[in-house]
Amino acid sequence: MKKKFKLITDGGEEFTVEAEKVDKRAFTLKRWKSIKSRLKGSKHPFMADIVKRTDDAFAKGINPTINAIGYKVCCPLHGGKIPSLMVRADLGIWLCFSCGKGGKVVHEGVVK
After folding, report:
1. Is 2 helix (H, G, I), strand (E, B) or coil?
2. Phi, psi of 25 (to 5 degrees)
3. Given CA atoms 90, 14, 75, 83 in this order, what sign does their dihedral have?
4. Domain boundaries in the chain?
5. How many Å apart are CA 24 and CA 39, to the nearest integer?
6. Of 43, 75, 83, 92, which has fewest CB within 10 angstroms of its CB?
7. pLDDT tens-digit readout, 41-74
8. What CA–CA distance (Å, rounded) separates 77 from 15?
C-alpha cells in the first residue's frame, strides 16, 4: 500500500513523497558498514542509539531486520535511484540513510 507524506527538513524545506510499506529484510554486515559511515555525521540524537544497537547486534552474531512499520521511497533531495528515505509516521520523523538528511512528518494521506 502506498501513502503520501508531506515532509519538512530540519532547515524548513517542505516536499511531498509517495512511499511504499517496508518489507522485512535482513541487513548484511557489509551493507551496515556502508550505511553507518553516512550516519555518523547525522544531527539526529536517536541515530547514535540506532548505530550502537545495530553494532551490538552484529557483535552478538545477530543479523538485524528492518521492521515493517515504516515506509520507503527514493530520496528527492539527492536524486537517489535506490529507496533510502525511510518515513516513520508513527514517530513523526523521516531520515534518508544515503544523504543523512531528516526531519518531521507534517501530513500523512492514502494514495488513491
Report:
1. strand
2. -155, 150
3. positive
4. 2-110
5. 21
6. 43
7. 666 667 777 778 888 888 888 776 655 568 888 8
8. 9
